[in-house]
Request: fold
Amino acid sequence: MNRFARQIALAEVGVAGQRRLAESRVAIIGTGSLGTVSAELLARAGVGFLRLVDRDYVSLDNLPRSALFNEDDALQSKPKALAAADHLAEFISDAVIDPRVIDVNAATIEGLIADVDLVIDGTDNFEARYLLNDACHKLRKPWIHGAVLGTSGALMTIQPSGPCLRCFAPSPPPPGSYPTCASSGVIGAATALVATYQAIEALKLLLALEESGALSPGTTSGNGAHNCNESPAPLSTQYFSLDVWSHETDGVLIAQDPGCKTCVQQEYEFLDKPVSTISSELCGRDEFQVRPGSATTIDLNAAATRLRSQGAVTVSPFILTFDDGNLRFKLFKDGRAMIKGVASGEAALSVYADYIGL
Ligand SMILES: [Zn+2]
Reply:
Protein backbone atom coordinates (compact mmCIF):
# COMPACT_ATOMS: atom_id res chain seq x y z
CA MET A 1 0.00 0.00 0.00
CA ASN A 2 3.03 2.31 0.44
CA ARG A 3 3.35 2.42 -3.28
CA PHE A 4 -0.09 4.03 -3.53
CA ALA A 5 0.17 6.33 -0.48
CA ARG A 6 -0.49 9.53 -2.39
CA GLN A 7 -3.42 8.02 -4.23
CA ILE A 8 -4.87 6.62 -1.00
CA ALA A 9 -4.61 10.10 0.49
CA LEU A 10 -7.18 11.25 -2.04
CA ALA A 11 -10.66 11.35 -0.56
CA GLU A 12 -11.89 9.91 -3.87
CA VAL A 13 -9.84 6.72 -3.36
CA GLY A 14 -8.87 5.88 0.23
CA VAL A 15 -7.76 2.45 1.45
CA ALA A 16 -11.01 0.70 0.49
CA GLY A 17 -10.92 2.22 -2.96
CA GLN A 18 -7.34 1.18 -3.50
CA ARG A 19 -8.21 -2.39 -2.49
CA ARG A 20 -11.12 -2.29 -4.89
CA LEU A 21 -8.82 -1.22 -7.72
CA ALA A 22 -6.51 -4.15 -6.93
CA GLU A 23 -9.50 -6.50 -7.34
CA SER A 24 -10.70 -4.84 -10.53
CA ARG A 25 -10.62 -6.41 -13.97
CA VAL A 26 -10.47 -4.25 -17.10
CA ALA A 27 -10.28 -5.19 -20.78
CA ILE A 28 -8.70 -2.71 -23.16
CA ILE A 29 -9.80 -3.45 -26.71
CA GLY A 30 -7.15 -2.00 -29.00
CA THR A 31 -3.73 -1.26 -27.56
CA GLY A 32 -2.59 1.48 -29.91
CA SER A 33 -2.40 5.19 -29.24
CA LEU A 34 -5.42 5.25 -26.91
CA GLY A 35 -5.09 1.82 -25.31
CA THR A 36 -1.42 2.00 -24.36
CA VAL A 37 -1.92 5.28 -22.53
CA SER A 38 -4.99 4.14 -20.59
CA ALA A 39 -3.31 0.77 -19.87
CA GLU A 40 -0.28 2.48 -18.38
CA LEU A 41 -2.37 4.85 -16.26
CA LEU A 42 -4.62 2.07 -14.94
CA ALA A 43 -1.70 -0.26 -14.23
CA ARG A 44 0.17 2.47 -12.37
CA ALA A 45 -3.02 3.33 -10.45
CA GLY A 46 -3.15 -0.25 -9.15
CA VAL A 47 -5.83 -1.95 -11.25
CA GLY A 48 -5.16 -5.63 -10.60
CA PHE A 49 -6.07 -7.21 -13.93
CA LEU A 50 -5.68 -5.80 -17.41
CA ARG A 51 -6.51 -7.69 -20.58
CA LEU A 52 -4.77 -6.10 -23.56
CA VAL A 53 -6.33 -7.03 -26.88
CA ASP A 54 -4.92 -6.13 -30.28
CA ARG A 55 -4.58 -7.90 -33.64
CA ASP A 56 -1.87 -5.63 -34.98
CA TYR A 57 1.92 -5.27 -34.72
CA VAL A 58 4.05 -2.28 -33.72
CA SER A 59 5.40 -0.12 -36.55
CA LEU A 60 7.56 3.01 -36.43
CA ASP A 61 4.64 5.27 -37.30
CA ASN A 62 2.91 4.22 -34.06
CA LEU A 63 5.67 5.70 -31.90
CA PRO A 64 4.67 9.40 -32.05
CA ARG A 65 1.33 8.58 -30.40
CA SER A 66 1.76 5.51 -28.22
CA ALA A 67 3.02 4.85 -24.73
CA LEU A 68 4.74 1.55 -23.89
CA PHE A 69 6.30 0.86 -27.35
CA ASN A 70 9.91 1.44 -28.38
CA GLU A 71 11.92 1.25 -31.61
CA ASP A 72 12.96 -2.34 -30.94
CA ASP A 73 9.30 -3.38 -30.82
CA ALA A 74 8.78 -1.75 -34.22
CA LEU A 75 11.91 -3.31 -35.75
CA GLN A 76 10.76 -6.74 -34.56
CA SER A 77 7.17 -6.10 -35.69
CA LYS A 78 6.19 -7.24 -32.23
CA PRO A 79 2.45 -7.71 -31.67
CA LYS A 80 1.13 -4.62 -29.90
CA ALA A 81 -0.56 -6.55 -27.09
CA LEU A 82 2.65 -8.43 -26.25
CA ALA A 83 4.87 -5.35 -26.48
CA ALA A 84 2.54 -3.39 -24.22
CA ALA A 85 2.33 -6.26 -21.72
CA ASP A 86 6.12 -6.66 -21.58
CA HIS A 87 6.66 -2.97 -20.88
CA LEU A 88 3.91 -2.86 -18.25
CA ALA A 89 5.59 -5.78 -16.49
CA GLU A 90 8.75 -3.66 -16.14
CA PHE A 91 7.07 -1.44 -13.57
CA ILE A 92 4.05 -3.41 -12.32
CA SER A 93 5.01 -6.87 -11.13
CA ASP A 94 1.95 -7.71 -9.07
CA ALA A 95 -0.78 -6.92 -11.61
CA VAL A 96 -2.04 -9.65 -13.90
CA ILE A 97 -1.52 -8.59 -17.50
CA ASP A 98 -3.29 -10.76 -20.05
CA PRO A 99 -2.18 -9.96 -23.63
CA ARG A 100 -4.28 -11.35 -26.48
CA VAL A 101 -3.06 -11.16 -30.08
CA ILE A 102 -6.43 -11.73 -31.67
CA ASP A 103 -8.86 -10.21 -34.11
CA VAL A 104 -11.85 -8.68 -32.34
CA ASN A 105 -14.96 -9.79 -34.18
CA ALA A 106 -18.44 -11.17 -33.50
CA ALA A 107 -17.02 -14.61 -32.81
CA THR A 108 -14.37 -13.47 -30.29
CA ILE A 109 -15.65 -10.37 -28.50
CA GLU A 110 -17.85 -11.97 -25.85
CA GLY A 111 -15.07 -14.27 -24.65
CA LEU A 112 -12.76 -11.27 -24.32
CA ILE A 113 -15.05 -9.23 -22.06
CA ALA A 114 -17.18 -11.77 -20.18
CA ASP A 115 -14.96 -11.89 -17.07
CA VAL A 116 -14.09 -8.20 -16.65
CA ASP A 117 -15.73 -5.33 -14.79
CA LEU A 118 -15.48 -2.81 -17.58
CA VAL A 119 -14.17 -2.30 -21.09
CA ILE A 120 -12.15 0.52 -22.62
CA ASP A 121 -12.47 1.30 -26.32
CA GLY A 122 -9.00 1.70 -27.81
CA THR A 123 -10.13 0.81 -31.33
CA ASP A 124 -9.79 2.88 -34.46
CA ASN A 125 -12.76 1.81 -36.54
CA PHE A 126 -16.54 1.90 -36.51
CA GLU A 127 -16.96 -1.84 -37.08
CA ALA A 128 -15.26 -2.60 -33.76
CA ARG A 129 -17.06 0.13 -31.81
CA TYR A 130 -20.56 -0.93 -32.83
CA LEU A 131 -19.61 -4.51 -32.07
CA LEU A 132 -18.38 -3.41 -28.61
CA ASN A 133 -21.63 -1.51 -28.08
CA ASP A 134 -23.69 -4.64 -28.73
CA ALA A 135 -21.46 -7.03 -26.77
CA CYS A 136 -21.12 -4.77 -23.73
CA HIS A 137 -24.88 -4.26 -23.53
CA LYS A 138 -25.59 -7.97 -23.94
CA LEU A 139 -23.11 -8.90 -21.18
CA ARG A 140 -23.99 -5.88 -18.98
CA LYS A 141 -20.52 -4.35 -19.04
CA PRO A 142 -19.94 -0.60 -18.81
CA TRP A 143 -17.58 0.66 -21.49
CA ILE A 144 -15.80 3.90 -22.29
CA HIS A 145 -15.80 4.96 -25.90
CA GLY A 146 -12.95 7.12 -27.17
CA ALA A 147 -12.08 8.50 -30.60
CA VAL A 148 -9.51 10.94 -31.95
CA LEU A 149 -8.97 12.66 -35.29
CA GLY A 150 -6.60 15.50 -36.09
CA THR A 151 -6.22 17.64 -32.98
CA SER A 152 -9.60 16.76 -31.51
CA GLY A 153 -11.12 13.83 -29.72
CA ALA A 154 -14.23 12.66 -27.91
CA LEU A 155 -15.35 10.19 -25.31
CA MET A 156 -18.55 8.79 -23.86
CA THR A 157 -19.10 6.56 -20.84
CA ILE A 158 -21.76 3.97 -21.61
CA GLN A 159 -23.57 2.01 -18.92
CA PRO A 160 -25.61 -1.17 -19.43
CA SER A 161 -28.71 0.86 -18.54
CA GLY A 162 -28.03 3.18 -21.51
CA PRO A 163 -28.01 5.50 -23.33
CA CYS A 164 -25.55 3.79 -25.67
CA LEU A 165 -23.47 4.59 -28.73
CA ARG A 166 -26.43 3.86 -31.02
CA CYS A 167 -28.59 6.35 -29.09
CA PHE A 168 -26.01 8.94 -30.18
CA ALA A 169 -25.38 7.63 -33.70
CA PRO A 170 -27.81 4.85 -34.71
CA SER A 171 -25.61 3.44 -37.49
CA PRO A 172 -21.97 3.67 -38.49
CA PRO A 173 -21.30 5.93 -41.49
CA PRO A 174 -20.79 4.17 -44.83
CA PRO A 175 -17.16 3.16 -45.44
CA GLY A 176 -15.21 5.84 -47.26
CA SER A 177 -17.61 8.62 -46.23
CA TYR A 178 -15.65 9.90 -43.27
CA PRO A 179 -12.15 11.30 -42.67
CA THR A 180 -9.61 8.98 -41.06
CA CYS A 181 -6.33 9.46 -39.24
CA ALA A 182 -4.64 8.68 -42.57
CA SER A 183 -6.42 11.43 -44.48
CA SER A 184 -6.62 14.06 -41.74
CA GLY A 185 -3.63 13.22 -39.56
CA VAL A 186 -3.60 12.93 -35.80
CA ILE A 187 -1.46 14.31 -33.00
CA GLY A 188 -0.28 12.30 -30.00
CA ALA A 189 -1.31 14.93 -27.46
CA ALA A 190 -4.95 14.47 -28.51
CA THR A 191 -4.86 10.67 -28.20
CA ALA A 192 -3.04 10.93 -24.87
CA LEU A 193 -5.62 13.37 -23.49
CA VAL A 194 -8.64 11.32 -24.56
CA ALA A 195 -7.01 8.15 -23.18
CA THR A 196 -6.34 9.98 -19.91
CA TYR A 197 -10.02 10.89 -19.65
CA GLN A 198 -10.93 7.28 -20.43
CA ALA A 199 -8.66 6.06 -17.63
CA ILE A 200 -10.20 8.56 -15.19
CA GLU A 201 -13.73 7.50 -16.17
CA ALA A 202 -12.69 3.88 -15.63
CA LEU A 203 -11.32 4.63 -12.15
CA LYS A 204 -14.45 6.59 -11.24
CA LEU A 205 -16.68 3.71 -12.32
CA LEU A 206 -14.68 1.11 -10.40
CA LEU A 207 -14.55 3.26 -7.27
CA ALA A 208 -18.23 4.26 -7.50
CA LEU A 209 -19.23 0.62 -7.69
CA GLU A 210 -17.31 0.07 -4.46
CA GLU A 211 -19.12 2.96 -2.79
CA SER A 212 -22.51 1.72 -3.93
CA GLY A 213 -21.89 -1.64 -2.34
CA ALA A 214 -22.82 -3.28 -5.65
CA LEU A 215 -19.52 -5.09 -5.73
CA SER A 216 -19.44 -6.32 -2.19
CA PRO A 217 -18.83 -10.05 -1.72
CA GLY A 218 -21.93 -11.98 -2.60
CA THR A 219 -22.77 -9.96 -5.67
CA THR A 220 -19.71 -11.18 -7.50
CA SER A 221 -20.67 -13.21 -10.53
CA GLY A 222 -19.31 -16.71 -11.02
CA ASN A 223 -16.80 -15.84 -13.73
CA GLY A 224 -14.64 -13.61 -11.54
CA ALA A 225 -16.08 -10.35 -12.79
CA HIS A 226 -18.51 -8.29 -10.78
CA ASN A 227 -22.16 -7.97 -11.56
CA CYS A 228 -22.81 -4.50 -12.91
CA ASN A 229 -26.59 -4.86 -13.14
CA GLU A 230 -26.79 -3.10 -9.83
CA SER A 231 -24.47 -0.27 -10.85
CA PRO A 232 -25.44 3.27 -9.94
CA ALA A 233 -26.90 5.75 -12.39
CA PRO A 234 -24.58 6.61 -15.27
CA LEU A 235 -21.74 8.89 -14.20
CA SER A 236 -21.85 10.56 -17.51
CA THR A 237 -24.15 10.41 -20.43
CA GLN A 238 -22.33 13.21 -22.11
CA TYR A 239 -20.63 12.96 -25.44
CA PHE A 240 -17.65 15.04 -24.38
CA SER A 241 -15.36 16.45 -27.05
CA LEU A 242 -12.20 18.53 -26.90
CA ASP A 243 -9.58 20.06 -29.14
CA VAL A 244 -6.01 20.21 -27.86
CA TRP A 245 -5.02 22.94 -30.30
CA SER A 246 -7.81 25.44 -29.60
CA HIS A 247 -8.56 24.27 -26.02
CA GLU A 248 -12.23 24.14 -26.94
CA THR A 249 -14.42 21.63 -25.15
CA ASP A 250 -18.04 20.68 -25.64
CA GLY A 251 -20.46 18.33 -23.94
CA VAL A 252 -23.65 17.11 -25.56
CA LEU A 253 -26.13 15.37 -23.28
CA ILE A 254 -27.21 12.09 -24.81
CA ALA A 255 -30.72 10.85 -24.09
CA GLN A 256 -31.79 7.28 -24.58
CA ASP A 257 -33.42 6.76 -27.98
CA PRO A 258 -36.73 4.97 -27.28
CA GLY A 259 -36.24 3.08 -30.55
CA CYS A 260 -32.58 2.17 -29.95
CA LYS A 261 -31.90 -1.25 -31.44
CA THR A 262 -29.22 -2.07 -28.85
CA CYS A 263 -30.07 -0.70 -25.42
CA VAL A 264 -33.89 -0.71 -25.78
CA GLN A 265 -34.81 -3.47 -28.25
CA GLN A 266 -31.77 -5.63 -27.45
CA GLU A 267 -31.30 -6.58 -31.09
CA TYR A 268 -27.57 -7.13 -31.39
CA GLU A 269 -27.22 -6.93 -35.15
CA PHE A 270 -23.46 -6.26 -35.14
CA LEU A 271 -22.89 -9.22 -32.85
CA ASP A 272 -25.12 -11.41 -34.99
CA LYS A 273 -23.42 -10.48 -38.27
CA PRO A 274 -21.38 -13.32 -39.84
CA VAL A 275 -17.63 -12.79 -39.49
CA SER A 276 -16.17 -11.72 -42.81
CA THR A 277 -12.95 -13.33 -44.02
CA ILE A 278 -11.60 -10.05 -45.36
CA SER A 279 -11.22 -6.87 -43.37
CA SER A 280 -9.87 -3.65 -44.81
CA GLU A 281 -10.30 -1.69 -41.61
CA LEU A 282 -6.61 -1.10 -41.01
CA CYS A 283 -6.83 2.64 -40.50
CA GLY A 284 -4.23 4.61 -42.36
CA ARG A 285 -2.57 1.70 -44.07
CA ASP A 286 -2.89 0.40 -47.60
CA GLU A 287 -3.30 -3.07 -46.20
CA PHE A 288 -5.94 -5.79 -45.99
CA GLN A 289 -6.37 -8.34 -43.24
CA VAL A 290 -7.45 -11.87 -44.19
CA ARG A 291 -8.80 -14.08 -41.44
CA PRO A 292 -8.80 -17.86 -41.75
CA GLY A 293 -12.27 -19.36 -41.96
CA SER A 294 -11.86 -21.30 -38.71
CA ALA A 295 -9.58 -21.30 -35.68
CA THR A 296 -6.10 -22.48 -36.54
CA THR A 297 -2.47 -22.33 -35.41
CA ILE A 298 0.29 -21.76 -37.94
CA ASP A 299 3.83 -23.11 -37.57
CA LEU A 300 5.66 -19.96 -38.65
CA ASN A 301 9.01 -21.71 -39.15
CA ALA A 302 7.50 -24.34 -41.43
CA ALA A 303 5.70 -21.62 -43.39
CA ALA A 304 9.00 -19.69 -43.67
CA THR A 305 10.73 -22.74 -45.16
CA ARG A 306 7.99 -23.06 -47.80
CA LEU A 307 8.00 -19.36 -48.70
CA ARG A 308 11.77 -18.73 -48.97
CA SER A 309 11.90 -19.78 -52.64
CA GLN A 310 9.42 -17.02 -53.51
CA GLY A 311 10.78 -14.00 -51.65
CA ALA A 312 12.60 -12.64 -48.63
CA VAL A 313 11.26 -14.09 -45.39
CA THR A 314 11.98 -13.13 -41.80
CA VAL A 315 10.44 -14.87 -38.86
CA SER A 316 10.20 -13.88 -35.20
CA PRO A 317 8.55 -15.80 -32.38
CA PHE A 318 5.37 -13.85 -33.15
CA ILE A 319 5.19 -13.05 -36.81
CA LEU A 320 6.43 -14.01 -40.29
CA THR A 321 7.22 -11.23 -42.76
CA PHE A 322 7.29 -11.95 -46.51
CA ASP A 323 8.52 -9.51 -49.17
CA ASP A 324 9.10 -10.22 -52.87
CA GLY A 325 9.54 -6.60 -53.94
CA ASN A 326 5.89 -6.11 -54.96
CA LEU A 327 3.93 -8.03 -52.44
CA ARG A 328 4.44 -7.83 -48.71
CA PHE A 329 2.56 -9.61 -45.99
CA LYS A 330 2.78 -10.45 -42.33
CA LEU A 331 1.45 -13.76 -41.07
CA PHE A 332 0.40 -14.29 -37.45
CA LYS A 333 0.34 -17.56 -35.54
CA ASP A 334 -3.47 -17.53 -35.49
CA GLY A 335 -3.50 -17.68 -39.28
CA ARG A 336 -4.34 -14.04 -39.95
CA ALA A 337 -2.35 -12.24 -42.61
CA MET A 338 -1.99 -8.53 -43.27
CA ILE A 339 -1.33 -8.05 -46.96
CA LYS A 340 0.13 -4.97 -48.69
CA GLY A 341 0.55 -4.27 -52.39
CA VAL A 342 -2.90 -5.44 -53.49
CA ALA A 343 -5.77 -3.33 -54.78
CA SER A 344 -8.73 -5.04 -53.17
CA GLY A 345 -9.87 -7.42 -50.49
CA GLU A 346 -10.54 -10.07 -53.13
CA ALA A 347 -6.95 -9.75 -54.39
CA ALA A 348 -5.74 -10.11 -50.80
CA LEU A 349 -7.79 -13.28 -50.44
CA SER A 350 -6.26 -14.65 -53.61
CA VAL A 351 -2.74 -13.89 -52.30
CA TYR A 352 -3.64 -15.65 -49.08
CA ALA A 353 -4.83 -18.73 -51.00
CA ASP A 354 -1.70 -18.79 -53.19
CA TYR A 355 0.95 -18.18 -50.55
CA ILE A 356 -0.51 -19.43 -47.29
CA GLY A 357 -3.38 -21.67 -48.28
CA LEU A 358 -7.01 -21.46 -47.24
ZN1 LIG B 1 -28.97 2.85 -27.13
